[in-house]
Each structure stands twice: as C-alpha cells, then as structure tokens.
Amino acid sequence: MNKKEKLDDLNKKWKEKCECELKKTATQAVPGDGNPISEIVFIGEAPGKKEDELGRPFVGAAGKFLGEMLSHINIKREEIYITNIVKYRPPNNRDPLPEEKSACREWLLDELKIISPKLIIFLGRHAMNNFFPELQISGAHGKLLIQKFKGMSTKYFFPLYHPAAALYNGSMREILIEDFKKIPKVLKEIPARGGSALG
User: Fold this and answer.
1) What region holds the Uracil-DNA glycosylase-like domain (predicted)?
2) Is residue 196 part of a domain?
3) Is 7 among the domain residues?
4) Distance CA 127, CA 129 (A)
5) Domain tally for the chain?
6) Residue 32 in contact with residue 111, Cβ under 8 Å?
7) Which domain holds residue 49?
8) pLDDT digit string (tens) for 46-77?
C-alpha cells in the first residue's frame, strides 16, 4: 500500500472511531489533504465554515492567503500536505477545547506517522501548543524548534502565526510573510530523512 492508500484507510477508520464531541454539530470530518509524500506538513487549528461544507482543510479565506504565501516560495498547494489538530468544526469557529484536541490527537499522530515529513509547520498557537504547550507564539514564530517525540520520526518544527489572524492585521501579515520566506532555507538546514546531523 502506498502512503495515499494508507491515509485513505486511516481517515476511513478514524471517521468511525473518533469520539470528538464536535462530531455532533459538524457537517462532516475534515481530514488532511494534499501530497502524502511531501517533505512538509502544515498543521492548522480546526476546520471553519467552508472547510466543514467541503470536507477539505484550508479552502476559505485563510487557505487562499496560504496559497499566495506558498507561491512566494515557489511551492504549489498540491505539493504540500495540510491538516488540522481538530478534524471537526467547532460551533461558530470558537477555539477547540482541550478534550476536543485530545479526542483528535491520535488521528493527527497517525497521519504524521504515515507521511513522516522532514518538517512540520504549525499555523497558529493552537497547533504549536498541541506539541509545545509551554511556548508563546509571539516568541516562537519563525524559529526552528528541534524536539524528539515518542513514536514520531519528525523532530523539526517551525511555528508561524495563523493566516486567519494575519488576514485582518497588517503588521502580523508582514511578519507571517517574512517568516514564510524562511521555509526553503530551514528545509535546506535539515538533514535528509533518516539523517541525524543535528542530533
């Protein structure tokens, strides 16, 4: 089975098995989407209205902005894989609750195990705090974090502000675009998959 088939199987399994309370109010699950052999996985917070309707992550305004930023660094949306820490839309786009995050956590970790990316990019504080609960996005954004987690091959993480937050905040937008431009350089600094030059 290739990675795409494994992900399809995984998503089918978790759609039935996931016990997230948000299932009751959401239209459908929104699993990750994109290139299963990508070196980069972007992790956002939770699906919004548009994502809930279409069953795909980052298809609304924030997704459009993300696409623009990717084009600045010559990467197409189809080349990367993108997912969320929570697979169901919280009512009225409120922040996901800790128990909702933990209900979807295994699903996310299973996705990451299959893809085994070189770099994980957090979009916003919720995604980052899911792995680094003690960090503040204001201090961590645009910096490469290196940390080994049990059961995960990826140990390189790069937090960014969430595109949705930057949509309506000019200064944050500038910071996000500048941080985004660092991604190709960060990728070059990371050893090839399986290599361990940095630890």
Assistant:
1) 31-181
2) no
3) yes
4) 6
5) 1
6) yes
7) 3-189
8) 999 999 999 999 999 999 999 999 999 999 99
Burial tier of 182 (Cβ tally within 10 Å: 0-12, 13-18, 19+): middle
Give the Cα separation of 152 and 13 in Å (integer). 20
- DSSP letters, 123-186, are ESHHHHHHH-TT--HHHHTT--EE---TT-S--EEEEE--HHHHHT-HHHHHHHHHHHTTHHHH
Amino acid identity of 51?
A: E
Candidate from 70-74, 109-113, 192-196 with smallest mean pLDDT: 192-196
Rounded Cα distance, 23 and 127, in Å: 20
63: tokens are 């997704």
User: What residues have CB less than 8 Å from 16, skipping those under 6 apart?
Assistant: none
CB atoms within 10 A of CB 93: 14
Query: Does the structure show a pLDDT above 70 at 194?
Result: no
Helix (H) or strand (E) holding 53: helix 49-54
Does 125 map to a domain?
Answer: yes
Tokens read off for 198: 């940095």
Nearest alpha-carbon partner for 179 in 139, 152, 146, 151: 139
Three-state DSSP class for 43? Answer: strand
**Separation in Å, CA 160 to CA 37, 82, 115, 145:** 22, 14, 21, 12
The CATH number for 162's domain is: 3.40.470.10
